[in-house]
Amino acid sequence: xxxxxxxxxxxxxxxxxxxxxxxxxxxxxxxxxxxxxxxxxxxxxxxxxxxxxxxxxxxxxxxxxxxxxxxxxxxxxxxxxxxxxxxxxxxxxxxxxxxxxxxxxxxxxxxxxxx
Length: 115
What we know:
Elements: E1 24-27, E2 33-36, E3 39-42, E4 51-58, E5 61-66, E6 69-75, E7 82-83, H1 103-114
Antiparallel strand pairs: 1-4, 2-3, 4-5, 5-6, 6-7
């Protein structure tokens, strides 16, 4: 290789992920849509050229998943994906009940301790 020449990088597309618990694996279009027959469902251009799994969860309601994450649901009428519940939101459970005390409540607690 002479000065100024660069080696050509070789790119191999990885195998599409498997979605064994889904009905179909679909390639998202460059414009970010799921195409099923003549229906076009808007997802996001972020997923362009990526494979997603879709599964019918109830009559005409479909779950869309990417890798291990459920992205959302779409129905055949609205033609857009509505987000699923965020799996990264921390669930905080109270350690004990929370009480709201007023100044009168504090005074009555203090006087009951004294007597």
